[in-house]
Amino acid sequence: MRDLTKLAVSMLKSLSKLAGDSILIFDYPSLVDLNMLPKKPTLLFVSNEYMSTIGDNKPEHIKRIFILEKDKTKVDQRERFGTGEDLICQLADELYRCYKKEARNYFISGDSAMGEKKEKQANQIFSGLKEVHQQYLKSNSGVTDSTTVTLLWLKSNMEDNILAEKVQQAFEKVVSSFLISENLSQCENYLLDNKSFGVCFMILGSVYEEKIIDDFQKFSNIKGFYRYDTQKNNYDELCLQLACDLMAYYNKLGDEYKAKKDTKKAKDMFMKAHELCEILNDF
């Protein structure tokens, strides 16, 4: 936790309170023997300094490692993250997916009580982060976090995840998180809970009527809407428009931070816009 900002630490504490002993926090990881951790599937969230001490000696129960990277040229928003806030957002995403998977398994097995409990835990993740962020804003003169960008796909449970996963792979380096929702009310609750916690670009599946977009217009944190049409298979057109809009958004942020003499954030935004130029070549 020593390498995290005050906001990132508060976010981590919120998640730890919800997840209990599923999250182990070490202030001095160099003193930790990974082989002594519980022998169950484990995700590591570490600094790049600590990562250099692991090398190729990763125990089998360590399934993935996410790194707080100081070298901005190595940041990929997939395994290496440039800020503590982005790293903890990844932890939140992993927890959310884990609880949703557990909920589905309980429902399939007929244990609806446990399924509902896990659904509730999943939904509490982002509402908890919302409270943390609101407190942070109050103590920091109302500064808003427009650099946290979520890509949200609202799909039908009749549609598979293949295309959604393709979009995630295409854009994961330039957004803070990617979420898939199959429930309209759940999606609305997420947007309400996170209306002051960054911005969102939203993709809607073909089963949803056009008036749904009108209903979502009330959310000021949504910066763009996109429709996927299964009959027309407009995947390339959708991704092209999304990439152009994200590029324009990051360039605008870069100009704003440049005007404020915040060179670091301006550079980060312009680098994301540059990465989007390369993504455009794929469509």
Strand content: 5-15%
* SS elements, strand count: 7
* Count of discrete alpha- or pi-helical segments spanning 4 or more residues: 9
Estimated radius of gyration: 19 Å
The helix/strand series, from N terminus to C terminus, equals HEHEEHHEHEHEHEHH
Biggest sheet statistics:
4 strands, parallel
Mean pLDDT, to the nearest integer, reads 83
Measure the end-to-end span: 40 Å
Please identify the structural class as seen in this structure. Answer: alpha/beta
Uncertain residue segments: none
Helical amount:
40-55%
Overall geometry: globular
Query: Strand order of the main beta sheet, please?
Result: 5-4-6-7
Question: What report would you give on this structure?
Answer:
By secondary structure, the chain is of the alpha/beta class. Helices cover 51% and strands 13% of the residues. It is built from nine helices and seven strands; from the N terminus they run H-E-H-E-E-H-H-E-H-E-H-E-H-E-H-H. It has helices spanning 6-19, 48-54, 84-109, 112-139, 162-171, 184-193, 211-216, 235-259, 263-280, and strands at 42-47, 62-68, 80-81, 149-154, 177-181, 199-204, 222-227. The strands form two sheets. The chain has a four-stranded parallel beta sheet, with helices on both faces. Strand 4 (149-154), helix 5 and strand 5 (177-181) form a beta-alpha-beta unit. Helix 1 runs parallel beside helix 3 (84-109) and helix 8 runs antiparallel to helix 9 (263-280). The longest helix has 28 residues, at 112-139. The model has no long low-confidence stretch (mean pLDDT 83).
